[in-house]
Amino acid sequence: MVVKRVGVCMKRVMVIGCPGSGKSTFSVALHNLTGVPLFHLDMMYWNSDRTTVDKSVFCKRLVDTTQKDEWIIDGDYNSTLELRMQACDTVIFLDYPVDICLKGIKERRGKARPDMPWIESKDEVDAEFIELIKKYNTQRRPKVMELLDKYSYKDVYVFKSRIEADEFLSRIKLKRPMVI
Prior knowledge:
The chain has helices at residues 23-34, 41-45, 55-66, 81-87, 98-108, 127-150, 162-174, and strands at residues 3-5, 8-9, 12-17, 38-40, 71-74, 90-94, 155-159, 178-179. By secondary structure, it is an alpha/beta fold. The strands form two sheets. Strands 4-5-3-6-7 form a five-stranded parallel beta sheet, sandwiched between helices.
């Protein structure tokens, strides 16, 4: 199935951004509108007991997913950014201010997380995680921007606010997909 929108074909989409930016929420909405299968990097990386899988297992899961005909992959794991950019046709970067991301982390506390493999809905936030968010724009964002420049021939959407991202989803909703 190919979903066409205003000259854009979204079959392999990566959704990236700082923790708390709403990558998973955006990805679920995009999946619901397009029917493109959704995969969360956190589900590939974490076990249900909050331990991580071996790096080789994670890499195999990711490579297997990127070889599928269609996918939406959400997550910002820096070590796999380029692999996903090489394989995708569309990049969506939720490039929000730090305060929005910190607010997103706070607002998701106590809510169910279908993008995580554990049953408990509490979202434990530690000082190291908060520091990662605070430093995202200076430490991780430059690599993202470098890769976006390198892969600028892809369909790239950079949203600076939740309103911009919601407007994008609304445009998709209003223009029902033409499936061919």
